[in-house]
Design goal:
mainly beta; Immunoglobulin-like; 8 domains; 5-stranded mixed β-sheet; 5-stranded antiparallel β-sheet; 66 strands; elongated
Amino acid sequence: MRIALSSMDGMTGVLLLLLYHTCLGLDVTAPPSQTALFKSRVVLPCTFRVNAPPINPQFLAIIWSFETKELLRFDNKEKVVSDDGVSLDEQAARQGNASLTIYNVAIANHGTYKCLVIYSPDRTSRDIRLNVQATPMVKIHKMGLHKYEKNQVDCSITGFFPKESLIVTWLRNDIKIQGGSNMGLLQIGADGTFRVNSSIILTPDQIKDRPSIICQVEHVSLQKPIQDGFLVTYKVAPKVQLTSSSTEDGNEYLYVCEARGFSPEPLSINWLVDGKMANLSRGSEDGLFNKEIYYRVNIKEGNVSERISCNIQHEALNSPVTKTLEVQGYNKCKPHCHLGLVVLISLLVSSLVFIGYILFIRKRKHSKHFQMSHIHEELVRGNEEKVNLYCMASKCPEKVDVTWMITVQEQKLIIIPESPANKDEEAGPLISHEYTVKTDQTEDSGLHNTITVLSFNPTISSHKNTEVKCKLQCGGRCEERTLNFSFSYKKPSVKGPIDLSLDDSGNVLCSLTLENFSPRNVQMKWNCGVGINHELPSTEDIKKNQDHTFQCNSTCRIPKDFFIDPGSKVRVTWTHGSLDQPGSQELSLKDFPWRPEMGDIIVPPLVHNGEAKLRCVIRGYFPDNLEVKWLRREAGKPDLYELPSSSDRYKIPVLEVIQESDKTYTCTASLIVSVLLKTEHKSEFICRVTRPSLETPLERRTGELTVTGIPTVTLKQNGNTLTAEISHFYPEEITVTWSRTKEKSQPPNNFEKYEEKDYSITPESDGTFTVISSIIHKKSHMPHMTNKDKLYKITVEHDSLKKTFEKIFLKGKDHFEDVTEKHIKVEPDQAEMSNSEAVVQHEGEETQTLVQPHKNSNDKKKNEKKNKKPKK
């Protein structure tokens, strides 16, 4: 971590302050340990208290360290710089809160931290052990199992810390499996977390009846165990068939690779020519799966011989299964080959009878080997849906007659491809204009191969439940296949609520994603305003998924001015062919994530007859439509009343609002109070924030306030009498002491207490107190002493004083002379701490001195004065 450290000069300044600061007592509080989750935010609590608040920042220093490394240093001359994951609130530190915030907790943050607080001349530290925990993730590797063999199942546990207290349990139907499990080697990742694999060997008896197998993990970071599992399925290897057919013009081959009867479902089909894939998968009635994949090859001019292979990979196979066919090309006839054609035709004609006889024999023989495939379904998704139904036949000694039949809304329809001889008038009307049939037939060694394709655009109304039959006739044999086809649109699903963010101009970016819908055509609209009647422009990004469905992300930019009105709302609507009515989502200001966060009210020292400015910072809100009110509770009363924006005693300045780099707003709410002891002592102020996005207002309270009165010292003389009037002080406890030296030549520290002539204390109407104390100079009867030989000193001690008030006087012939500066050395730092100055003038005249509040009075003396009457 990189934190700015104070310079030696700054530290020297702090040490000088410590030398002149009286021991006041310091108490630091922190828990022995703290727990934080990996990548979270944590606060290490550390608070301190001095026996004589409020805290004077001039005598305060805070140092945080981790293990042996210093992380952060804060004192009155050094600003905290925290750009590497840690921070300290300076304002809170001046109020007694030295807590350290760590952002994005890492495993490296695990260890012991020290909070050292120096409040001159005391220093106290506390150690805090930060225990970082990372919750594990568990993933069992689901797989099909061999039914009659032993099987190993693996489970990965990743991202946990600490490594201790990890317990992995294997369950079968929620009952612990005894034995057979093994824990792998523990490994550590780049982020400091751990990972480990656990495996178990399952016997055939343990996987009988398809039980559930669960990997359960317990860890100190988890409140309850987590688990992952699966229901046992058995491995069944696929049966693979590869068929092909060319078009009539011979320019294209269509290959169909069919895998049937396998389990579990995941299966990979690859064409070895270029690896292109096109998948369609569906389940069968026996719980096993079928999968077809199509591949087209264009044949160029000239002799072409290319091996096309279909490669099947499945976990039930020990090695992949590969089926291979050849693509046979052809030569277009050149002009010089026509003579050869004539000769060839002559030979063919002369032997027609013989060939016909041979074909008849072969037809009867090979018709027994005639094969017909299932109907393969290919759904092509785009702006419009299209269905292609394929059916293939092979090893027929003559051309195959093709008939497609489709039952739509309980009406049987006959679709006649090219051959009208296949028409069956009793079966139903012809609707070939709505359907397209293309049949390709090729011949190889006297045997015919046929592929026929039925294509149409499906609709929900016509093809919700449809039966399709393909009838193929080869010689005297007839084969028929049936497919139950059901078509429906795929309705869009909504991916989460409307997502909100702020752009560089402070406008609101709204976006919503629709997923897994088909067909592609979808419309999305955005509206905003109080009546949601203002349509806004938007952009849509539509992408096609691997399963041929679509997803659409719609984004709309809404100017921030739209949200000033608390009734403003945002609505997005979408229409799609699968929906009976438009879908919609809506949000209002209360759904905005940018909610205000209030800090504590910062209260300066409250001095009678002075002015104080209370401040409260509100952060992280958007838009800028915050309402702040100040309320007051009188001492000893429960009721609150709202303060006006301006009055004789209270003023509420306009909010100080700034926009942060993340485009949210921060404001400072202030209250200026003309402090009177009688009204503000033990009263309470409340800062209340209201906003449309808040269900209940936010509040921060000052707690009962403490007001002090600073003594005003008036010194006056009348002949040999010196009188001190100390007024406007609170609380009542005060100490006034007179002392003198026997001789002028004696050092100043040889003062002896001198008895007052008069002492009285009087409560005033404003709640403060007044003390009058006087002494009389007695003439010496010693011949060697004169009236000028006596030094007199007055000392005033009170909680509100920065330092003890002292004045020294020399009794002149007819007046007292202030000689304080001659006998008390005032250091620069002390001069800054005390603005007191008094001069005793001639008889009948007086000087008033207002002594500033002392934020650090002596604890020992304070304890002596506590609960005592004024001392004479």
